[in-house]
Amino acid sequence: MKTDLIYGVEDRPPFKDALFAALQHLLAIFVAIITPPLIIASALKLDVEKTSFLVSMSLFASGVSTFIQCRRLGAIGAKLLCIQGTSFSFIGPIIATGLVGGLPLIFGSCMAAAPIEMIVSRTFKYLRNIITPLVSGIVVLLIGLSLIKVGIVSCGGGYAAMDNGTFATWENLSIAALVLLSVLFFNRCRNKYLRMSSIVLGLCLGYALAFVLGKVDMSSLNMEMLMSFNIPQPFKYGVDFNVSSFIAIGLVYLITAIEATGDVTANSMISGLPIEGDSYLKRVSGGVMADGFNSFLAGVFNSFPNSIFAQNNGIIQLTGVASRYVGYYIAAMLVLLGLFPIVGAVFSLMPDPVLGGATLLMFGTVAAAGIRIVSSQEIGRKETLVLAVSLSLGLGVELMPDVLQQAPEAIRSIFSSGITTGGLTAIIANIVIRVKE
């Protein structure tokens, strides 16, 4: 396929060009990688040391995952410039799981369900009639809408602020508003570097204002910890398992497999590679397989499920560099950042309103992506019924969780998440309504 690329997938750019391209990719993904562990840690009220370690391990796991995607180990990996990072899609189910069984249950459930995506990579053509674009669009929409609540809570000061009576003070809302407006402002700039770093710049401004207002608590920092190295410790927090959490997280793995397929396809197009035939199927199968395998690996190293980042496809277009060897540089940078505790500590001290201002926009973007997927399909009477029943039940459970308070514990834990409820409803409704016709 004809492209305007400077370096193709198998080209090896000079060190200077490769490093410059890698830094731009890193700038685009850094905040997205560290945000899920920060949100999850805040919801579970973890201390600074645990939060810092989770952030560091997210960077480390993303580095290892990116290397596997770019390098391809056997049947695992797309062998493209595919960047992996901590997935937003799992935040809701992970928080629900963590509130039941803490970090051991989170990591155990994520590892146990990861093979689902690996199996899908080999049987995707059989599942395409069940998990249609309409179903995946509904789930992505529900993910975004349910996460907006998490973003709003952070804007008000987080769950800790709810407990101590300082929720939604003018200081918290002002910090969140500054971050949100700054991100919007820089994102509208004509300068491509300001646009690419809009979230980082917004966070920096919000962090500075929070520091001036005395919202940054430096007393919890341990200097001995900061001066040391993070040595990845498999199963540091242990593992646990229950069926309810497995089902809730497994459903998101199914949807992630579909998203990964779309991301690999888009990456192939931008990189000038065919999007049909055996070589294409091999790339897609390897990319989705790596998505599942890397998520399992992330659980081993005390991190959360990984997925391919779609925003990096835009960076490939912007730079004209599609070389998978650039991925090696990105992977090395992420691993190094994960080994230094000070990186995780700086971000673990970030006040909730700072993170909330940025994530509110990110989560809204996720919901908008779901709307785009749904609207790309022809919406007739059957599709409207599937959409209506899925959103009604999914959002209903999300807005009024007490509706399940009389249900057995197993049912309550499975359907307490709007994503799981709406997603399962979408799959069943899609099958039933089509069969009826």
UniProtKB/TrEMBL annotation:
It is a multi-pass membrane protein. The chain crosses the membrane at residues 20-44, 51-68, 88-114, 126-148, 168-186, 193-214, 234-255, 326-348, 354-373, 385-404, 410-433. Signal peptide: none annotated. It holds the Pfam family Xan_ur_permease. PROSITE patterns: XANTH_URACIL_PERMASE. It is found in: Cell membrane. InterPro entries: NCS2 (IPR006043), UacT-like (IPR017588), Xan_ur_permease (IPR006042). Coiled coil: none annotated. Its main location: membrane. Keywords: Cell membrane, Membrane, Transmembrane, Transmembrane helix, Transport. Belongs to the nucleobase:cation symporter-2 (NCS2) (TC 2.A.40) family. This is Nucleobase:cation symporter-2 family protein.
